[in-house]
Amino acid sequence: MILTPQTELDAVNIILENDGEAPVNTLDDSGFSESGKAQRVLREVSRTVQSRGWAFNTDRDRKFLPTITDEIVLPTNTLKIKPTYLSEELRLVERGRKLYDVQNNTAVFTSPVYLDIVQMLAFEDLPSTARDYITIRAARVYQARATGSSSQDGFTSQEEVEARSVFKSADRQAHPRGFFRNPRNARLLTRRPL
Fold this sequence. Notes:
Elements: H1 8-18, H2 34-50, E1 58-64, E2 78-83, E3 92-95, E4 98-101, E5 113-119, H3 128-146, H4 157-174, H5 183-190
Antiparallel strand pairs: 1-5, 2-5, 3-4
Helix pairs in contact: 1-2, 1-3, 2-3, 3-4
């Protein structure tokens, strides 16, 4: 019985076994072996899933200060940014790991900017429900690319749907959404005249 959280090696072995391949003892970073291909698919699916932004990889209302050169540098693992209500007048995009103001055509910032930022996390840093869903999804993607035969698919689409449902439920519990939980809406409610 496994009592430790799933590692990237465990996930790669599940992907390989799903396609009828033998498990491996170590990961191959070269990408030429079957385990390397499985690891690449796992990371690709992980990036795709994480880019949607979940409670575990989204920092809300994070303050970014300009550097000495008046630029705002984003972390290297940034997947998506969105100005919060404190910086909503700005139209910002990411350019070369720095913020760029599209409306004013500039990368120069003289005051702090507040962002909701989605960041890519390492597989081992993900919650177990996310790891489970990403592993099952990656196994199905890998199998479809390797053989293209749905009859050899070890995981059914129903298992993937169930894993996604558990994952989304855990995310909702970690970060409830709704009108009254949004800081901007809460601010609007407190400014109402009596």
